[in-house]
């Protein structure tokens, strides 16, 4: 029905990790200081981006995105590398990752249709989701996605009856291997007793496998797991390899079938502030590949084709959010720096307590640094973009703040709170800035309201 997911696409220029030090260590590798306290990313002044496109605005360094794609190919040369679209997706992003030889994993018909109508090959796409709607499944079958990941027992029959007569849909089973990993309880997805996957411990995963093998319209090609997000140690991935290979061996022993693929998901941790830990992908790849080879040898299995799904680690460090300061309020104990964005364009601090390192750009300040709370404009006390930020003591209305590591789960999680409109996305590369996603206007918001 569908051709296999893409394999490694041959030699690429080697990826050189960023060498920036100190306060710029979490910024894109192309970041360079300019006069008057400004910075350039991708050869473009941040102050000029703010003046040209307005604020808030997301900036995305195309070169950084492409370099990070190549880093995953270098670390996992035999694997199929799929970009996790949930982190951030637009037409240009789909085009970039395809050009870099990556597949795509999507979680909805919306993500799927945007990618396919951009020209992304559907056979290189995997559909995920713990609660896929009928429309999601119909779209996946209509476009001919490469894989659908089964996440619950009810999906098996629903998908099997939807597959056209004479066709077979390749599927995988998402397994919860019982491994706790991730930077926050709300983003740990490899444990039991949460909404994702089928438990390895209670036999649910194997029961689903047995049912799928009885469906003539479904072709089981492998197992899938995703442990969580913001994982900064190799140990959880190595443990997952061992447990998943154990299940592969059990399937072989009980059903006489050797499944050819193993998807270990993503979740590779990045640093949001200087000094924070990040997962070393160059070191992780060889360790995972060695563990997989050793575990398969011990079980008497051929090594399955490995699939990985980086998202945040590809696009997160390539993004910068720019805000204009609207007000500065000093209370008895704290200084609040209010900006023209907030939780509608970045809900992550409110959801997970994520901490960022904003920086004044566009003017030089000799004032000593002081601790401030960068607050958003929305009607919530929890609308804080950066608590305990170190900013010049003379910060004032009209100043421009830049927040690095803003490429992942910002626009993709943005909301319509207070009807302020979602910011635009601007790509920078080779000294040029171009609009990728326009700002959501009040006309856009009004046009959806048909209540009168």
If you had to describe this structure to a student in words, what would you say it looks like?
The protein contains twelve helices and 21 strands. It is of the alpha/beta class and 452 residues long. Strands 4, 14, 15, 16, 17, 18, 19, 20 and 21 form a nine-stranded mixed beta sheet that branches. α2 packs parallel to α9 and α4 runs parallel beside α5. The protein is globular and about 70 Å long.
Write the topology of this structure:
Blueprint: E1 32-33, E2 39-41, E3 44-45, H1 46-53, E4 57-61, H2 62-75, E5 80-84, H3 91-99, E6 103-106, H4 109-118, E7 125-127, H5 134-143, E8 147-150, H6 153-162, E9 169-176, E10 198-199, H7 204-213, E11 218-224, H8 235-255, E12 261-263, H9 281-299, E13 305-308, H10 312-315, E14 319-330, E15 335-339, H11 348-352, E16 359-361, E17 369-375, E18 384-392, E19 400-404, E20 425-429, E21 432-437, H12 442-448
């Amino acid at each position: 029905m569908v051709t296999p997911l893409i394999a490694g696409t041959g030699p690429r220029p080697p990826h050189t990790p960023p060498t920036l030090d100190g306060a710029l260590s979490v910024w894109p590798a192309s970041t360079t200081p300019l006069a008057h306290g400004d910075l350039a990313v991708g050869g473009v002044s941040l102050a000029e981006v703010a003046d040209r496109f307005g604020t808030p605005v997301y900036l995305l360094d195309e070169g950084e995105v492409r370099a990070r794609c190549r880093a995953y190919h270098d670390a996992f040369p035999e694997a199929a590398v799929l970009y996790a679209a949930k982190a951030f997706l637009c037409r240009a992003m789909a085009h970039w990752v395809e050009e870099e030889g990556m597949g795509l994993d999507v979680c909805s018909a919306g993500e799927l249709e945007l990618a396919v109508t951009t020209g992304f090959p559907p056979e290189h796409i995997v559909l995920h989701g713990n609660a896929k709607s009928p429309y999601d499944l119909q779209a996946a079958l209509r476009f001919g996605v490469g894989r659908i990941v089964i996440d619950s027992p009810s999906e098996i029959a629903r998908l099997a009856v939807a597959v056209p007569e004479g066709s077979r849909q390749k599927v995988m089973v998402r397994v919860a291997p019982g491994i706790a990993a991730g930077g926050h309880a709300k983003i740990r997805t490899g444990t039991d007793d949460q909404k994702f996957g089928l438990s390895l411990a209670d036999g649910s995963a194997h029961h689903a496998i047995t049912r799928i093998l009885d469906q003539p319209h479904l072709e089981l090609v492998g197992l899938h797991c995703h442990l969580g997000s913001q994982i900064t140690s190799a140990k959880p991935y190595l443990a997952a390899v061992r447990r998943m290979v154990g299940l592969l061996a059990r399937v072989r022993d009980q059903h006489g079938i050797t499944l050819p693929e193993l998807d270990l998901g993503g979740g590779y941790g990045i640093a949001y502030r200087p000094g924070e830990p990040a997962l070393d992908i160059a070191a992780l790849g060889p360790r995972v590949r060695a563990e997989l080879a050793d575990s398969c040898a011990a079980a008497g299995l051929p090594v399955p084709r490995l699939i990985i799904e980086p998202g945040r680690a590809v696009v997160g460090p390539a993004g910068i959010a720019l805000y204009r300061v609207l007000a500065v309020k000093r209370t008895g104990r704290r200084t609040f720096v209010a900006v023209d964005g907030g939780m509608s364009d970045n809900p992550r601090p409110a959801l997970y307590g994520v901490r960022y390192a904003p920086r004044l750009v566009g003017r030089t300040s000799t004032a000593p640094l002081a601790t401030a709370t960068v607050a958003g404009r929305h009607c919530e006390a929890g609308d804080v973009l950066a608590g305990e930020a170190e900013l010049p003591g003379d910060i004032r209305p009209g100043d421009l703040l830049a927040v690095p590591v803003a490429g992942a789960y910002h626009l993709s999680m943005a909301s319509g709170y207070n009807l302020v409109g979602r910011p635009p996305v601007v790509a920078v590369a080779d000294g040029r800035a171009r609009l990728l996603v326009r700002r959501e206007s009040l006309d856009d918001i009004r046009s959806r309201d048909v209540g009168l």
